[in-house]
Amino acid sequence: MTETKRIAFQGEPGAYSHEACRHARPDHEALPCRTFEDAVEAVKTGAADLAMLPVENSTYGRVADIHSLLPQSGLRIIDEAFVRVHINLLALPGTTLEEITEAQSHTVLLGQCRRFLKEHGIHRITGADTAGSARAVSEGGIAHRGALAAELAAEIYGLDVLARHIEDEGNNTTRFLVMSPEADDSRRGDHGMLTTLVFQTRNIPAALYKAMGGFATNGVNMTKLESYLIGGSFEASQFYADIEGHPEDPAVARALDELDYFTESMTILGTYPRDPRRP
After folding, report:
1. For residue 60, how many other CB atoms are within 10 A of its CB?
2. How far, rounded to the nearest angstrom, does the alpha carbon of residue 56 sit from its chain's CA centroid?
3. Do the beta carbons of residue 16 and residue 82 sit within 8 Å?
4. Is 88-163 the same fold as 6-85+172-180?
5. Of 48, 59, 238, 241, whose CB neighbour count within 10 A is largest?
6. How would you classify the pairing of strands 173-180 and 50-57?
7. What local confidence, expressed as pLDDT, does residue 52 receive?
8. CB of 52 within 8 A of CB of 7?
9. Where are the annotated coiled coils located (predicted)?
10. Do the bridges between strand 102-105 and strand 123-126 make them parallel or antiparallel, or are there none, so unpaired?
11. Pairing mode, if any, of strands 61-62 and 50-57?
12. Residue 208 CA neighbour count, 13 Å, CB half
């Protein structure tokens, strides 16, 4: 018998990150963790083989603190997963939609279902998170209260799905990264490769402009570039970038060489296949 592999995520069972684990690693047992740091630590201590971390949402932008956590984690990106965020109204078994007068969920999800809630006269109640709200409804026994969460939460907590896909926006998607203790630089997948890196520019005029020049002259597409402060200083900025291609591609290799010349430090966080669901 082989030992069951585990993938850690932040949140309670039934969270959207749990759904991402099932989607991207159906052969792994999902391990819920209290914080993102706990999910990373679970991998570092061997309690889990992988970690599933959300990095950005198409509606609300990047996930706070993740970009600063990744470089310090000691883990490497081996995959990405785009998960469509479908919001559903869950309630106690046997409850009808007409009986629901209030719905509980994370404030972000409540804000994404304004039209549906207004149309049905449902009052909003802020919960700590989505899956936790589903659990609270299941354990609370209040017939007129529902929860906004993933269908997976209904499955786990024994709730009925009264309305499916009630979100206001029809394209709300979260991007997740699969993190591993070891890098995987092999070429894989049928949709091309991506490389993620972080770097700090040298303290010279136009350093960022010059550092980016190598990608333009070598025809390497940069799909993301973000900066954030590090070390509690307004003077030290670190940049997070996603580029298309593999570090061994001649054009990418030349661009990275030029980037290295204009930076104080540069770290490749991972090289991984492009998700076919990437927009």
Report:
1. 13
2. 6
3. no
4. yes
5. 48
6. antiparallel
7. 98
8. yes
9. none
10. parallel
11. antiparallel
12. 12
Nearest partner of 156 among 131, 127, 129, 126, judged by Cα = 131
Rounded CA-CA distance 242/221 in Å is 9
Please tell me the distance from the alpha carbon of residue 244 to that of residue 224, in angstroms, as a whole number: 10
**Catalytic machinery residues:** 174, 176
Q: What amino acid occupies position 161?
A: V
Task: Return per-residue pLDDT of the chain as tens, 279 residues.
Answer: 458 899 999 999 999 999 999 999 999 999 999 999 999 999 999 999 999 999 998 877 888 778 889 999 999 999 999 999 999 999 999 999 999 999 999 888 898 899 999 999 999 999 988 999 999 999 999 999 999 999 999 999 999 999 999 999 888 899 999 999 999 999 999 999 999 999 998 777 888 888 899 999 999 999 999 887 776 666 657 899 999 999 999 999 999 999 998 898 999 999 999 999 887
Q: Within 13 Å and on the Cβ side, how many CA atoms surround 83? A: 27
Domain 88-163 class in CATH: alpha beta
Burial tier of 212 (Cβ tally within 10 Å: 0-12, 13-18, 19+)? buried
Q: Where are the alpha helices (DSSP H) in the chain?
A: 16-24, 36-44, 66-73, 107-111, 114-119, 130-140, 151-157, 207-217, 250-261
Which residues share a beta bridge with 29?
A: 6
- Domain 6-85+172-180 class, CATH top level: alpha beta
Class of domain 193-273: alpha beta
Per-residue confidence (pLDDT) for residue 230, from 0 to 100: 72
Domain regions of the chain by residue span: 6-85+172-180, 88-163, 193-273
- Would residue 192 be called left, alpha or beta, if left means φ above 0 and alpha means ψ between -120 and 50 degrees? left
